[in-house]
Amino acid sequence: MTGYVPGRQLQHRAADRTGVPARTATPGRARTSPARTNPAPRITALGGGQGLSASLSALRRLTSDLTAVVTVADDGGSSGRLREELGVLPPGDLRKALAALCGDDDWGRTWSEVIQQRFTGSGELGGHAVGNLLIVALWEKLGDPVAALDWVGRLLNVQGRVLPMSAVPLDIEAVVRGHDPDRPGELSAVRGQASVAVTPGTVQSIRLLPDEPPAVPQAVTAVREADWVVLGPGSWFTSVLPHLLVPELAEALTETRARRLLTLNLAPQPGETEGFTPQRHLEVIADHAPGLAVDAILVDERAVTGGAFGQADLAGLEKAAERMGAALVLGQVARTDGSPRHDPELLAAAYDRIFRTHGRIGPWR
User: Fold this and answer.
1) What is the pTM of this model?
2) pLDDT value at position 31?
3) For the chain, N or C: smaller number of CB within 10 Å?
4) In the 3-class helix/strand/coil scheme, how is the chain assigned residue by residue?
């Protein structure tokens, strides 16, 4: 514990354990990782979209030893167009994760805005994000999705590393009850992340296509070598659960010596989880990954005591957490403007308290 300053933003190291050089190093040349002396936690965060971005924006305030493992099933918008035309991984969620890891200095703020900038107009470039095109260009040049993302991270001087969870584009297929409003009890198959995210009816379960997709080895290593693995917040069926359906990642999550933290959303999501209680969110995780144990579950106190979830059954929620082996941690992590978005500073403070009070393992003590 000596030397760890909670909430303090750490400087970007010249080279981290990934072997990716800083901007001042020789381009493309990996360095030998030095002995680990950083007393801050080694964290791997899993998810996608805005939920993962919120988590990363908070976590980078606590550590620079941070890896994001990102879903690759998006089939809508700019990502969907590039995926269909070029057969590449959807870059959008990867871009958002990179933007979230940019620093708060002029360099970081500028590049974060640049890669998020979208072209206007109705032409072929209309709607494409600059960062999506940059990522895909490097993929085509290098032929290695991980190396390309490392190069983008080096350009942006991000605090951490961004990895896809699989090196092949994935599809999500959901079983939905009541997809046809005229047949509320009927089960239907809905395919595609964009469609599942807004589907009428109630999502019962999901699966990935192709079945049993391969995980990116670096992502598996990041889970196994972490001190903490953070799952959520995010779209429950399309950003959070997919990681549990990649066999090598699921195995790593079960076997890792890392502590596991699950962050609950601030509100049910129209389409995916409309009408879900907080307990139902946990039950869905347990149904898809029955062997997964969790150490702590972070819940916004206001969301479950009269907020977006109404007056939740806290006793029932605590029992659902206990069935997963977890302690239920209530905190105030939402923005104060009433929107269902996490506040990075409040979320960072909540993460820090959990890391301090729920045990540490490995070299970080």
Assistant:
1) 0.87
2) 33
3) N
4) CCCCCCCCCCCCCCECCCCCECCCCCCCCCCCCCCCCCCCCCEEEEECHHHHHHHHHHHCCCCCCEEEEECCCCCCHHHHHHHHHHCCCCCHHHHHHHHHCCCCCHHHHHHHHHHHCECCCCCCCCCCEHHHHHHHHHHHHHCCHHHHHHHHHHHHCCCCEEEECCCCCCEEEEEEECCCCCCCCCEEEEECHHHHHCCCCEEEEEEEECCCCCCCHHHHHHHHHCCEEEECCCCHHHHHHHHHHCHHHHHHHHHCCCEEEEECCCCCCCCCCCCCCHHHHHHHHHHHCCCCCCCEEEEECCCCEEECCEECCHHHHHHHHHHCCCEEEEECCECCCCCCCECHHHHHHHHHHHHHHCCCCCCCC
Q: How confident is the model at residue 299 (pLDDT cuts 50, 70, 90)?
A: very high
Type of residue found at 85: E
Task: Categorise residue 227: left if φ over 0, alpha if ψ from -120 to 50, beta otherwise.
Answer: alpha
How many percent of the chain have pLDDT more than 70? 87
